[in-house]
User: Fold this.
Amino acid sequence: MATDHPPAAADPAHPAVPLKGATRKGDRIFLGLSRGSGIALLAIMAAIAVFLTWRAALAISADEANFLTAFEWDANATPPRFGIAVLAFGTVVSSLIAMIVAVPVAVGIALFISHYAPRKLATPLGYVIDLLAAVPSIVYGLWGALFLVPHLSGLYEWLDDYFGWSGILTYEGGAARSLFTAGILLAIMILPIVTNVSREVFRQAPKMHEEAALALGATRWEVIRVSVLPFGRSGVISASMLGLGRALGETMAVATVLSPSFLIHASLLQPGGGTFAQNIAAGFKEAGATGRDALIASGLVLFVITLLVNGAARLIIARRKEYSGANA
Amino acid sequence: MKQLQRTSRLRTAAVGALTVCGALVLSACGSDDNSGGSGSETSKAAGNISCGGEGKLLASGSSAQKNAMDVWTQTYQSACDTTQLNYKPTGSGAGIQEFLQGKTAFAGSDSALEPGEVAKSKKVCKGGQAVDLPMVGGPIAVTYNLEGVDDLVLDAETLAEIFDSKITKWNDPAIKKLNPDAKLPSTKIQAFHRSDESGTTDNFTKYLNTAAPGSWKHEPAKAWAGKGGQGADGSSGIATNVKQNDGAIGYAELSYATGNDLNTVKLDTGAKEPVEATTGNASKAIADAKVVGQGKDLALELNYKTQAESAYPIVLATYEIVCDQGNKKETLAATKSFLKYTASEDGQKALAEKGYAPIPEEIITKVRSTIDGLK
Assistant:
């Protein structure tokens, strides 16, 4: 920085010295350390990327089926045949269901904590939500398998009765272990992240705007609508993306509640489908050499999807920068 | 103000801790306890173990052997405290991989080595190759949950058709024929299979493929190939789902069926009486197996079509895999001493308590002589 902005017309007696002052021993050590760790991080990342891409390339070149469109996964067979179409569909759909369920609820909770609840209630509520974020995913998975699945059949039947005509919500009985259930479980898991970040953003909404709205005779809801929500919009989007990231990569919880298969059903309530992370967890232990490489290849695809999603989120946030203040 | 905040923070922490404890207790209710007996037998057996070697003995592989290994390790360790045995249930594939890389002294596996793996093993086993030693047998129980039916007989054909979604109702004529006295409801059948790749699936489908070739056309494999039904993660996942759903049927190692109080199907094998899934009946079926391994290798070919009296044919035989020659010097003595114990009468007897089937006398004698000759 110092070299970018030389002091224009500075005191000729003291040329640039005060700005360059970082020459003490500690400064040099610190500079070396931070630069070194930065470079090391990049090098490690590059090495991992090269390794993964190489293994994935090995698997894909051995693949006898179309890697992107095949509806099967026989990576350990000779010749190996596998494709990621079902996994990509399942990952995206279960995460979307999670977002549709979780984001409105999370925004509601965040608004309640930041603007409606009395302080005495808001603080403990905030802590409880923080705690929810710390529960390990396998515990959510067990709860999902032992409690949620047996109790969802009722909801499934109701959905089938009223929305079965749509084709995507038909239910034919049996254990409720579908992408829809996985989505609901994921929604519960990402709720705390989305809530926490949104709450912080809503709290930072400028008091002046709120008071101005109140002075104009706005009700509490109108205050939130005209001043808090527009201000927090980009923050809520970033929060949702954080949650979406977790949902896309969630492994154990999905593996415990989903009944996977390499078919795509029109109905979300039919057992079947799968996600990238779940498939890796299910296949890794008994995989042979090609099988393992195939799983790594599927992991790379998940990585690309996550990257695309994050990129899209950045674009949206960048466009709404005018509202975001410190939270861009 | 600060004081106030601090106390309220403390209070919320307490509330939170309570919530978490509650959640833990709840989830603990559902956990499966598959360890049948207690450790009462362990001290008795300790007398006949001859210790050998010292230091760490690493092994990994089949998770189906885990409970057996736990019992053996406990007993062996109490007799020989100079060796630290560590068996990691990583799954057969990973276990063989680690053994071939020379990381472990022996591997546990649900299936015998493939020819390619034997070829690779010549690198680790200097002057020799890897061999399969059958050590743990286990019945795979077909468990079901059907209201009002406590006694159910099925045969290979109907099992194959049920698990391939060709029979979809419990009152199907094929099932009725085998159970003339049972009151079969018209409940839909929910067939559960393993969603992860597993040796249990491999052995179960091998049985279906051999005993009912007309009804089960899929190649036996570790990954489920049948049509329809639902997948569940691990044997515990199968047990949980069968327990939760009326009309469910699934397959799992016997210990999971007994541990979860599930009904098991009796098999009509062609013998006079339908055969129940017990460790004793499984041993009888393993006794009907042929040794197909060459030389010191003792890989078994199970006779899934056996009609012998009270022989339960859906069994899996799991192996320990070691080098016949060229075992690592540091661990050879300990490996030999531990395997000698597991193949001994005491070692095999300890199995039955955990839902495993002891390897029958004829075969285990061969195993013992191979172990004696390990170099």
Summary: The radius of gyration of chain A is 25 Å. Residues 20-62 of chain A form one domain.
